[in-house]
Amino acid sequence: MTSHIPRRLALGMALSLGTGLVQPAWAQASRGKPAEAKPIRVALIESLSGPFANTGEAVYRNLLWATERVNARGGVKLPGGARRLQIVRFDSKGQVEEALAAMQGAADAGIEYIAQGNSSAIAAALIQAVDKHNRRDPKHRMLFLNYSAVEPSFTNEGCSFWHFRFDAHSDMRLAALMQVMEQDQELKQVYLIGQDYSFGQAVLRQAQAELAKRRPDVQVVGNELHPVGRVKDFLPYANKIVASGAQAVVTGNWGNDLTLLVRAARDAGYKGRFYTFYGNALGAPAAIGDAGIGKVVAVADWLPNMPDHGSRVFYRAFRDRFPRPEDDYVHMRMQLLIEALAQSIERARRTEAGAVAYAMETAKVSLAGRSGAMRAADHQFQQPIVVGVMDKLGAPGVTVDVEGSGYGFRVVKELSPDEASMPTTCRMVRPPR
């Protein structure tokens, strides 16, 4: 008799085979020995192949290191005994359809938590998909932990009880950048360029609003969107930037779209500044070289050259774990995300997504002298924001460089969580406890 496997279950089985879920370590205990408790699994849904694979792998290293730290101290404490955290990789290939298939595969495999961030377009689809899944299958609900998708609506009018964001959204990041930009009294002309999807559009829209408010004397001489991950040669864009006479470029570009843009700008002879969301790693500093000294500005939740002992120890530990120069991209917020998850599971005393979500609404975590707290009103993590300027290794305030490039970022501005915070329009709908 032929057995017919439902398509969704078959997909989950296929993904499980690809990620080693069929026979995980906890199910392979030697005969005669008690089996280790089943790990608490987190599905990482990210670009692990294609043009943005380097960004997905950077996330994986951060989450892996964070779970290793939790597991090294005994794991997540629960009434039935401690359990390890485990990251399970799902390759979205940077595509919405692939990400949704991966989410369903994770659900079919019984995984209760998904993590994603390197695309607001994918995040938007996942938020809707998780909401729908939790309505249809309330006994097997899921949480979405977002570490990088910074489209502002996700914690405003589009907020969801099942979504928690651990990165500052783009309006928060841009406001921090603008506090540095408005001090540059020589600045008169700015070029805006970004990726053509919700996040890139939001950055350019808010940049115009912030400039009009903070620097009405500055003229926007270019406002341009380009396809995401498809442009191989940014020289035509760079030539337009040079021809515009812009003294600064504002961009939310990330991954290869940022690296190729700054490299093309250098080759085109652009001498102005770059105000970026992600210019502090993934090849960008090496691509622009000496031309970026004092001119490439980046905003982040934390930078390796933070002038405190805790940050130095934290960064050194990450580099000891991942010593290759190309692996040098550590995110404090991803470490705090895993700490918040472990804390919330322990407070809930179980792993069920609804109970953990209610506990996570009031999560407060600290690591290496950095702290953050989840805001229950919209599930937007409240944390410091820092702004850094590129300089040579060894310059004052630059004790470590980026990816062995010889360039690092000197901290020039730090905002406390209260200073970085923004109001929300979220009207959260919560399920019964």
TrEMBL record:
It holds the Pfam family Peripla_BP_6. Residues 1-27 form the signal peptide. The keyword Signal applies. Transmembrane segments: none annotated. Keywords: Signal. Residues 39-391 form the Leucine-binding protein domain. Gene3D superfamilies: 3.40.50.2300. Belongs to the leucine-binding protein family. This is Branched-chain amino acid ABC transporter substrate-binding protein. It comes from Comamonas serinivorans.
